[in-house]
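User: Please fill in residues for this 362-position structure.
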């Protein structure tokens, strides 16, 4: 029992999934893990205690299905987002990956297409394929930037049902400003998703795409608690959009998709938003330190508004990745020739990475 009896090829798998690779960022128990853009600062003790109390209360009713409409959590997100966002404009799910999947299930599907500007977040392709749609890739300009004109032209030509704009972009960190969002929205009849997973790490005075929601019923702004909120393990993502678009997502979600424990934990964490976000400034400081040091070491460093840095000028990314691994530091080889990506960690973790890299040399 339990042994492998057939290979995947022997199973009646969907034809369009044959030969595909699953999401596979390495998970290795190394002392310094800076590979998946987590917040490496733990949740502060006083907040963890309050979250534990809230989860304990929710546990008493766990014999019942949870609030299918996650009303309290929705209100919490609306208040956190500001910009006049109302609770009926908010949707949430198990990570922003599931939020994006809901949008694709409702607005993509067999025979439809989704579009994004490569290189970008690898899950866009996987989620798109998962709903039976084709993913089309557009191109970026020098330094992975995107102008409003080029973006709009490419989006108009692709004529896809869903467009992903990653702001700032993963894995490059590249800022994406609202003029690009406006131009892309005007260039398509499809859904435009602005993925603001790393929004809290951008300069405070820069506008969010939330400012554009009014009067744009096909615009979606997605966010996550996984990054700035240090809540990746809890799996909570959310979006803001027109109430009609949110209604459409009810057609595809599983009933009670957000557990009572998740709802309780996320609502409690949101009550402590200021404390949860207190580490953002420190992370931005470490990010700037990484950028400055890498530049001094002779690498090409790209502007970043996220909690990670993409750097080029790496002669052999695989060898450098392995040499760092051997020194207990895990970063990410994202498959861009000559480049590697590193997440800003605590001060000590960041020092461990920079010291190891300096020792290895270019
Ligand atoms: C751009 C972007 N969007 C979405 C996500 C998904 O985050 P989660 O599902 O943890 O909310 C990530 C995670 O790395 C990301 O980089």
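Assistant: Residues filled in for all 362 positions:
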């Amino acid at each position: 029992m339990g042994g492998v009896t057939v290979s995947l090829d022997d199973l009646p798998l969907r034809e369009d999934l044959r030969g595909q690779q699953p999401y596979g960022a390495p998970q290795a128990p190394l002392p310094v893990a800076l590979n998946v853009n987590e917040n490496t600062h733990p949740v502060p003790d006083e907040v963890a205690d309050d979250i534990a109390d809230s989860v304990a209360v929710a546990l008493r009713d766990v014999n019942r299905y949870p609030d299918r409409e996650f009303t309290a959590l929705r209100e919490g997100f609306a208040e956190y987002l500001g910009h006049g966002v109302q609770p009926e404009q908010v949707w949430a799910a198990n990570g922003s990956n599931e939020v994006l999947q809901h949008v694709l299930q409702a607005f993509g599907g067999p025979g439809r297409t989704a579009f994004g500007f490569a290189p970008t977040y690898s899950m866009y392709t996987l989620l798109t394929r998962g709903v039976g749609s084709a993913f089309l890739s557009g191109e970026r300009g020098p330094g992975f930037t995107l102008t409003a004109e080029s973006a709009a032209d490419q989006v108009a030509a692709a004529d896809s049902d869903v467009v992903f704009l990653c702001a700032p972009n993963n894995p490059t960190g590249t800022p994406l400003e609202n003029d690009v969002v406006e131009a892309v929205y005007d260039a398509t009849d499809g859904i435009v998703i602005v993925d603001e997973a790393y929004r809290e790490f951008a300069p405070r005075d820069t506008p969010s795409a939330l400012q554009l929601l009014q009067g744009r019923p096909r615009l979606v702004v997605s966010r996550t608690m996984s990054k700035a909120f240090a809540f990746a393990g809890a799996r909570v993502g959310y979006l803001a959009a027109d109430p009609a678009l949110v209604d459409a997502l009810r057609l595809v979600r599983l009933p009670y998709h957000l557990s009572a424990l998740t709802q309780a934990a996320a609502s409690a964490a949101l009550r402590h938003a200021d404390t949860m976000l207190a580490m953002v400034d420190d992370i931005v400081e470490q990010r700037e330190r990484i950028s400055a040091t890498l530049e001094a070491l002779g690498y090409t460093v790209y502007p970043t508004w996220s909690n990670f840095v993409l750097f080029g000028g790496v002669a052999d990314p695989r060898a450098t990745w392995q040499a760092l691994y051997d020194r207990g530091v895990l970063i990410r080889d994202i498959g861009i020739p000559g480049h590697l990506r590193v997440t800003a960690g605590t001060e000590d973790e960041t020092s461990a990475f920079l010291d190891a890299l300096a020792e290895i040399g270019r």
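For context: The chain has two domains: 26-41+279-360, 45-272.
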